[in-house]
């Protein structure tokens, strides 16, 4: 056979390869050209398969099919997974290192729990502190036993007998000496994009655990693969050696160009090859792909009427603030105008939230400016428990606020959250009602916030308040809210501002 399986998981070798192909692909990161039993062989990772000649790909596929196990993982018949998750579980079972890149709220956590086989060793989950409760719930629901939660740097080593451990990234290095002595069946790296930087404390602690794991699974809902410059460390963590050195990877895929003080990596190159290789180790699903299997999300765009005099006064006040700063830029003017308009939406937002609570909901209200959130908080009557979540809140305080929010009975509690925490691993699925008092210029930020209150088990309501003026109307159209961000999700702030200003 021209193709054989290598002793390393997910690696193969191709004996007596086509020399023209070797010359053309000599600089492809991760390929190794070495003599083997007197013959030239190409050692390649499974991610290289899309770049192999067709005949060699067919030979490789025969080897993989022959090795494909029919072994059923202990938890996969639990009935807790949806159809697309079952399909993706079969894919993940065949890889030692893989990236699960579901969009938010599509079920990364339960799928990771079902991938684990206790016969292989422990389940170790590393992630942000805010994700701890979601993991505790799903590990216990899947395996029948709670995980051991490592809270701080001075925790005593866990007692034996636990099958799963959760440790957050900020204290992982303190518990590495204990964990590297364990046999790890599945190492789950939640919010995987947080490990983009090489040499950080988090990355170094994770690297120490990699050799102990039978399976490594990275989870992320953030589309970091569109930025090859910062992708190398993630791929190297999952599949060591498969992507070459950092310089080789960036030169091949990050649009490397020589600059005055060294190489610049600000673009993307060989994009089709990179996407084809990523597809061999990554499961990517968007909300739109699986919407038939999910409960409906109801989006309501609620206009807030402004009189001509009110709008004129807001414009005048905005210009006055901008002039007082000494500069008048498009972004600065629009940001100030957005805050002034938000002040007109406080009372309507309060009324909608009060009605939602009367209907048995526990609403989350999203704001951008702290002063808008503070004013909104004081607008509620004293018999409503109002919780505030700010971007500047440290992780322990966020966890306390979220615990209080989850514990409160629906109908008498609201959470006012800053948009700055939308990209943090927050589980707000105890709420099914989100109200946007303000919008961000970046569609991805709005989308992240929207999906924080989504859960696959029930319907989901999202209300967008927009002041009925030309600027915010243009912003709603530019963000493409009516079509769930489908046409806007890839736009940056400058693109949105350009669309708003026409």
Strands of the biggest beta sheet: in what spatial order?
7-8-6-9-10-5-13
CATH homologous group name of the largest domain: Tandem AAA-ATPase domain
Radius of gyration: 25 Å
The rounded distance between the terminal residues' Cα atoms is: 62 Å
What is the number of independent domains? Answer: 3
Structural class by secondary-structure content: alpha/beta
Main sheet: strands, sense, barrel:
7 strands, parallel
The low-confidence parts are none
| SS strand fraction | 15-25%
Report the CATH architecture of the largest domain.
3-Layer(aba) Sandwich
Number of helices: 18
What shape does the CA trace take?
A: globular
Name of the top-level CATH class of the largest domain: Alpha Beta
Structure report:
- The chain has 502 residues and is α/β, with parallel strands linked by helices.
- It has three domains: 3-67, no CATH class; 83-291, Rossmann fold; 297-501, 3-Layer(aba) Sandwich (Rossmann fold), CATH 3.40.50.300.
- It has 18 helices and 19 strands.
- It has helices spanning 19-24, 54-67, 83-93, 108-115, 132-143, 172-179, 201-209, 232-238, 246-253, 271-278, 308-324, 330-343, 346-358, 370-378, 395-407, 443-451, 470-479, 493-501, and strands at residues 3-5, 11-15, 32-36, 39-45, 97-102, 122-127, 148-150, 164-168, 184-189, 213-219, 257-259, 262-264, 282-285, 297-304, 364-367, 385-389, 413-418, 433-436, 460-467.
- The strands form four sheets. Strands 7-8-6-9-10-5-13 form a seven-stranded parallel β-sheet, with helices on both faces. Strands 14-19-18-15-17-16 form a six-stranded parallel β-sheet, with helices on both faces. Strands 1-2-4-3 form a four-stranded antiparallel β-sheet, covered by helices on one side.
- A hairpin with a 2-residue loop joins strand 3 and strand 4.
- Helix 6 runs parallel beside helix 7 (201-209), helix 11 packs across helix 12 (330-343) and helix 17 crosses helix 18 (493-501).
- The longest helix is centred in the middle third of the chain and has 17 residues, at 308-324.
- The radius of gyration is 25 Å and the shape is globular.
- The chain starts with a strand and ends with a helix.
- The model has no long low-confidence stretch (mean pLDDT 85).
């Amino acid at each position: 056979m021209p193709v054989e399986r290598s002793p390393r998981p997910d690696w193969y070798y191709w004996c007596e390869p086509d020399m023209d192909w070797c010359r053309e692909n000599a600089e492809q990161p991760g390929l190794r050209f070495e003599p083997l039993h007197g013959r030239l062989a190409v050692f390649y990772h499974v991610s290289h398969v899309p770049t192999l000649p067709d005949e060699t790909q067919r030979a490789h596929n025969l080897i993989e099919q022959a090795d494909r196990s029919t072994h059923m993982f202990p938890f996969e018949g639990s009935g807790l997974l949806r159809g697309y998750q079952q399909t993706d579980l079969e894919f993940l079972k065949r890889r030692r290192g893989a990236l699960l890149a579901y969009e938010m709220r599509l079920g990364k956590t339960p799928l990771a729990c079902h991938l684990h086989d206790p016969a292989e060793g422990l389940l170790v989950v590393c992630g942000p502190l805010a994700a701890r409760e979601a993991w505790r719930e799903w590990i216990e629901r899947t395996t029948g036993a709670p995980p051991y939660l490592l809270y701080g740097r001075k925790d005593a080593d866990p007692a034996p007998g636990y099958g799963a451990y959760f440790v957050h990234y900020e204290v992982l290095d303190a518990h590495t000496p204990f964990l590297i002595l364990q046999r790890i069946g599945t190492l789950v790296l939640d919010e995987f994009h947080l490990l983009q930087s090489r040499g950080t404390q988090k990355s170094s602690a994770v690297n120490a655990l990699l050799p102990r794991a039978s399976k490594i699974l990275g989870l992320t809902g953030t589309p970091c693969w569109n930025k090859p410059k910062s992708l190398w460390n993630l791929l190297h963590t999952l599949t060591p050696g498969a992507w070459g050195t950092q310089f080789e990877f960036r030169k091949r895929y990050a649009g490397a160009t020589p600059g005055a003080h060294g190489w610049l990596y600000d673009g993307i190159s060989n994009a089709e090859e990179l996407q084809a290789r990523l597809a061999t180790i990554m499961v990517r699903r968007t909300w739109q792909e699986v919407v038939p299997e999910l409960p409906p999300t109801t989006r309501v765009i609620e206009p807030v009427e402004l009189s001509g005099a009110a709008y004129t006064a807001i414009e005048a006040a905005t210009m006055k603030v901008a002039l007082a700063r000494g500069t008048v830029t498009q972004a600065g003017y629009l940001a100030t105008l957005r805050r002034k308009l938000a002040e007109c939406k406080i009372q309507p937002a309060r009324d909608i939230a009060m009605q939602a609570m009367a209907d048995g909901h526990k609403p989350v209200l999203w704001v951008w400016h702290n002063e808008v959130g503070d004013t909104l908080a004081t607008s509620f009557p004293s018999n409503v428990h109002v919780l505030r979540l700010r971007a500047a809140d440290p992780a322990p305080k966020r966890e306390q606020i979220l615990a209080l929010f989850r514990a409160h009975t629906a109908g008498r509690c609201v959470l006012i959250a800053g948009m700055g925490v939308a990209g943090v691993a927050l589980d707000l699925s105890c709420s099914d009602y989100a109200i946007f008092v303000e919008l961000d210029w970046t569609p991805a930020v709005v989308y992240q916030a929207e999906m924080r209150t989504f859960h696959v088990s029930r319907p989901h309501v999202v209300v967008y308040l927009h002041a009925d003026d030309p600027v915010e109307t243009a912003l709603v159209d530019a963000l493409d809210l009516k079509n769930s961000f489908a046409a806007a999700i890839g736009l940056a702030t400058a693109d949105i501002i350009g669309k708003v200003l026409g």
